[in-house]
Amino acid sequence: MTRRYDPTSRLLLTPDDPHATARVGRLAELGLGRGAPGPLDVFDGFARRMATELAAPFAMVNFIDERQQFFAGLHRPRTAGPGPAASPARDAPARAMPRGHGYCPHVVVRRAALVLEDVLDYPRFAGNPVVEEMGIRAYLGAPLLEATGPALGTVCVADTRPRSWGRDGLETIKGFAGELTAELTGGHR
Asked: What does the alpha-carbon distance between residue 171 and residue 177 come to, in Å, rounded to a whole number?
């Protein structure tokens, strides 16, 4: 029997990130991150490709510092239809979000992909603000990894309904992460 999240208990555990300062420094060397004059339209196009390939309403290229996340690439639904996304309280994200919101901080700290087919099945993730504020129910993300050093950021997709990403979905998001890392670092992974 699957245990479901009890909304009366708020288990919010964003992992400590001892590599945040090094990540910010490396992103600055690459001309990326918040405040960098990076090509947002190129990153948005990359996010759109991920959303299309994985049939997800949300897709992001995400860089994370000590306090917040910056979506250099962002694809989100243009209009809210029926269901959770239609609520004004569940507006799509802006380009920045606190570090404690969402699941990408877990991906960069772990340096490993994260697959959540239904976030409500995981007490550690179910109480995350993106569940209530945006209606996120499924997440698939992979880190942008160089051979050494901290993860540069993440690529991810999310859905407002539970879904099975499957092995193909996992391999696809990891492929996108490898492709973007190679582009960002000039092929030096």
From this structure: 10
pLDDT digits (tens, 9 = 90+) for 104-140: 999 999 999 999 999 999 988 888 889 988 899 999 9
Task: Read off the pLDDT of residues 92-102 as tens digits, 9 standing for 90 and up.
Answer: 457 888 988 99
Let me know if 170 is exposed, middle or buried by CB neighbors in 10 A (0-12, 13-18, 19+).
middle
Cα 10 from Cα 94, distance rounded (Å): 24
Burial state string for 72-109 with b = 16 or more CB within 10 A and e = fewer than 16: bbbbbeeebeeebbeeeebeebeeebebebbbbbbbbb
CA 60, CA 76: separation in Å to the nearest integer? Answer: 9
